[in-house]
Task: structure prediction
Amino acid sequence: MALVTCREVRESGYDRDLPVLADAVRRAGADTSVVCWDDPGVEWGGFDLAVIRSTWDYSWRAAEFLAWADRCGAATTLANPPQVVRWNADKRYLGDLAAAGVPVVETRYLAPGDPADLPADGEYVVKPTSGAGARYAARYTSEDHEGAVRHLERMHAEGLTAMVQPYVRSIDTAGERALQFFGGRFLHAIRKGAVLEPGTAYDDDKVPHPNLRTWEPSAAELAVAERALAAVPGAPELLYARVDLVDGDDGAPRVMELELVEPNLFLFLHEASVPVVAETVVKAAAR
Result:
């Protein structure tokens, strides 16, 4: 079995869950290798299962990564499946969820060539449809219009489509909640604070998961998360999933993101989940 990461993460040790998970999977009875997705020397057909874990450079190399997912999925079982990876790698999937009746954060999309149709008032967020770790994300007000336009121009020059969302003010008080599912069942949840501080430039480094703590989701949060997962096209079998939620102005939970490619599992906050995840992975490899 392969646990798939990227070179930067493997060299830095930034994915603190990866060695713990690899050891747990080995103890659960599976031969396990930690490999980089872009390593040309890896024979993917030699693995019973390849589990995408911390390929956290993929959004910078989306086309290359998606081509790899197709090749890997043709050679072995890839979790999650290539068609899921392709759909979820572009955040325009929020439109599909909304069309299916899932409550999501209101989102508009501006592709290269589109005019800079930005809100005239209120606070809003601009970020790319292909991104991770708050890459190229920033929040603006109408007074920052010129800065937001420059932000759009930079993304469009790189061929990126922008998404524009109202800034969800509840994030400043209630934070974001991330509900983790593994093997089709709820596993655990975390809460994190606001990532985008006022005045932080889109190209500045940001802390993607500030003020982390464990979280016990409400029945309403679980229900919205399950609706989002049920709306994934084709109803595929998902080994793992993370549903990021925020509260709308009415106080009801809405989907901010649905992470089906390489979500951080936050096992270091939920040590009891480690053997559950390991056993589920081993069972998936044995199918």
